[in-house]
Amino acid sequence: MNKKQLLKTGAFLLVFIAIFGYLSGILRAKQVATGGSTFVLEEFYQQEKDTVDVCFMGSSQVIWGINNMKMYEDYGISSISVGSGDQPLLVTYFLLKEVDKRQSLKNVVLDMSMLYEKEMESRYRRNIDGMHWSINKLQAILAHVGSEEAESIQSYFIDWIKYHSRWKELSQSDFVYDDSRSSMHRGSIVSSHARPVDIPYEKFIIDNERNKTVEPAEGQVEWFLKIIEYCDDNDIDLLLIKTPKSNWSLAKHNGVQHLADEYGLDFLDFNFDAMLKEIGYNYGQDMWDQEHLNIRGADKLTDYLADYLLERKEYLDYRTVDGYSPGDVERYHKDYKDKYLISSIDVNETFSYLKDERYDLVIQSTEDISGGITEEMKSYLADMGVTVDLSEAAGKNYILAVNGGQCVYELISEEPLTYDGTFSDGLTYSAAADLNKKANEAAIVINEAAQGFAAEGMNIAVYDNEKGEMVDLLTIYTLDGALHVYNR
Amino acid sequence: MTFISVEFYLLLAIVAAVYFIVPLKFRWFILLLGSLAFYVFQGIEMLPLMLLSSFVGWLFGLCMGKVYERDPKQKKKAKLFSGIAIVFLIGMLAFVKSSRYMPESVASKIIVPIGISYYTFSIVSYLIDVYRRKYQAEPNFLKFTLFTAYFPKVLQGPIARYDKLMPQLAEGHKFEYGRFCFGLQLMLWGFFKKLVIADRLSIFTNTVFLDAANMSGSVILVAAIFATLELYCDFSACMDLASGMSQIFGIELEQNFDHPFFSKSAAEFWRRWHITLGAWFKDYVYMPIVTSPRMAKLLQMVKKHFGTRCGKSVMAFVPLSVVWVLTGVWHGTGRAYVVWGIYWGAMIIISQIFAPEIKKLNAFLHINVESESWKIFQMVRTFALFSIGRMITIPNSLSTTALMFRKIFLDFRPWQLVDESLYTFGLDRKNFLLALFLFFILWSVSMLQEKGSLRLRISEYNVVFRWMIYYIAIIAIIVLGIYGPGYDASSFVYIGY
Q: Domain check: are B53 and B158 in the same one?
């Protein structure tokens, strides 16, 4: 091969490597759904060096169950969550090394779910694939690929071996990283929804015969012990926790407690009634499923853990550090408010959130609730410029439109009503109020898509005029003489 | 280790690097080492059997050579040597191929060396050629083993002829950049056909044929068409890979496919499909039968009693029947393969015997046999005939084949061709439509290749356009290929022979 041919070959290969690198990045699966690990890892990598003191690690419980922005705003502690759904402890170990490499951690708080969970290949890939190339990533791959269920080592080093078939699923998020709608802040998510989960955890856990004898999952203990060793060697305090989870058990608790006692670690298990009482847990409001706390539950747990950590160690108050930014605070507050609105089951609380320049509201009647309208509700509506007195609207239909916190339309009538309106950003909608119709027949139609309500009463569509998307569809309804809130 | 494995290309890279470093006269030895290493990776237990075949072929070839050296007229002795060796080799081949009919306790102990059908036929052709004094016997056992086990062709052919391949293997070639690039480009096309087309189609065909009893005739028909193209793409891809990597070493393997679906008759098809197998049967089965004294006697007798036309028919029938039964058996040992061989044999025999009648019929029907439409019809007909043949061999069960044909004629359900049912047999909508688009690509490239070397034409384009074609091909293979976790790294269809 002469020099010219060598140069041509080299140029061809260089261009190919560039194309191939770009293509790999596009094809790699992005975990960008709510709570997605892509956001978690990118948020970690975006943190400035040596600005994080506490890291919450483990599975999805630490993503949904902690509020790191609250940790900063209320307590000045700089913390992040680094984890993913059902994350094996092997991955947690190498991520711990990765985090500590950049952050010089003081504390690691480790949720102990995974000690008893079976490993699955997809759970490894979630966060190993998303790690930036480093010695830790290399070691994580090499440590994992020896196991039976692991995919080939080549597929870890060359993404497209695994992900090339995603060509038919590619979407905008594969090409453009956009975390502006992720609801994730410092690795924890401002989670939506409240699902009444009235499992009396302690009774369930203790009484459940099936969970009497449980062994830690094969392979998990080894990495748990490595985490302990790493923290010990690097002077990092390790705290073990267990957030409320329906498949937890007394046997599992005892197993973790035994290890904690053996290695001199504290273990806080929030599945016991006493602990739930300590954090002010509300069975009807603080979980979004049987495994995860929502934002309300996360706030309570965060308060407890912040106090716990501050009692035992001194931390730099990052609120006093000049030039330090914890992240997009404005976006956090908006997310936070949205999720508190969505998870609210109290009428007065709901109305207190509704008055906001960011929200456009469409209120229509599908059932008479006039008898339950409170003074507080009337006061909130009056603040928005609503002049009609809905407590006097017995047997009448009404439609109210509020744009940017100010009423732009109100009509009350004995006849069924329709109204074609426009949100602040120009998006059109049609509302219909008819006490004789069921909620799903009298939906709000926004941009030709019907948005149905789940119950009859005072239907309120809440639209974010900055993001240009629906926030909530809620109904104030009457039950047993009192008003309740039903969120979609 | 197949042609679609990372380990193979590591081996290829090492062999190529060392090949072009060592002096020319030792380069054949590097190919031998590479071939032996490749064979060991297939399974070290297979190596002694392959070496045994090579040794028998070499030894008896040498014996014949010695016999002819002493007395060129000693054909009887030479025949004995070649006969013993051929019986041994064919016997070994027949034994391993029939192992599936043996009890499990016996069959599980039988080692089936990879490529045995291909290298056995190569060695047999060598023995017969030495017997015929076409060339002299190879004195060097190691070189002969290289001829037997040369790694690009050992898995699936082509069935090499000693006089065409050995000189190239022994010569040692200098590195040539243009040839190297051409070889890589041919391999690129092979990868595309294998990973993007063949393995994609196999998802559909496997799903349908595994549960043929519950499929409609329309779905079975689509699967039969897919199976035909799948086989072509799979087999010809392997040939392209073998030829492409040989070109890197400066070795030209014999062509094994020449766009068979442009054929207008069954006979032409088999001159374009698996060319080296057809040529082997022609040179070592057909011609010996046709030119044998016994055949001449038979011909004379038939002519005498039944006329010249009958004689010509017997001349066609006898050797072609033998060839096609053996071809069927070579492909597989079940009854289905024998029927398949008879199917093709019957078609070719009938078309040969009744050629005058067919011509008269065309004239009677005023068919313009020179028109484009007739040629297209002929190509479609040939494709359909091949697809029917596929339906005989795919299930390897005549009763299942009969069931499939019954379904096509009696339970067609044409609506399943348009009601999106076709997207429920392993290939979703996007993949199915992609498969149809790939047929168009395959056809287009084949049309261009019929007119001349496409690689040569592309090489004349400007560098930007040229590189764009290469990058698109590489990216298409990377993105659209069927491989990786979740996919079985499909072995080539003909690898079991």
A: yes
